[in-house]
Amino acid sequence: MRCPVCGTEGSLSPLGKLVSTTPHGGSPELRFKRRNAIHSEPTFTAKLARACGKCGVLLAFLDFQQRSTLTTAMDELIPYDRG
Ligand SMILES: [Zn+2]
């Protein structure tokens, strides 16, 4: 399988389970802001991922329901500020 970032063929790991090192043990979350700040910030939990052995990118995957929610909210999302 080719890495979508560095393009190296055969560099992606098999699917792995994302785990948290926090005391609560939750999975890593991906959160966005919306253009209309009144609504809540869409948050997605990724449970599976692949990693590239060449460039180190981590590719996390959402399940079907979360992909559907993301697609519906996509036009309202704005980048999260760094820092
Ligand atoms: Zn790569």
Description of the molecule:
The chain is α+β, with helices and mostly antiparallel strands. It has one domain (16-78). It contains one helix and seven strands, in the order ββββββαβ. It has a three-stranded antiparallel β-sheet, with no helix packed on it. A two-stranded antiparallel ribbon has the order 2-4. The termini are far apart. The mean pLDDT is 87.
Number of helices: 1
Radius of gyration from the CA trace?
Answer: 15 Å
The stretches of 5 or more residues where confidence is low (pLDDT under 50) are: none
Return the string of H and E elements: EEEEEEHE
The ligands found in this model are:
zinc ion
Label the overall shape: globular
The amount of beta strand, in percent, is 15-25%
Which structural class best describes the helix and strand composition? alpha+beta
What is the residue-averaged pLDDT? 87
Distance between the termini: 34 Å
The spatial strand order of the largest sheet comes to 1-5-6
- Overall number of strands: 7
Count of distinct structural domains: 1
Main sheet characteristics: 3 strands, antiparallel
Percent of residues in helices comes to 10-25%
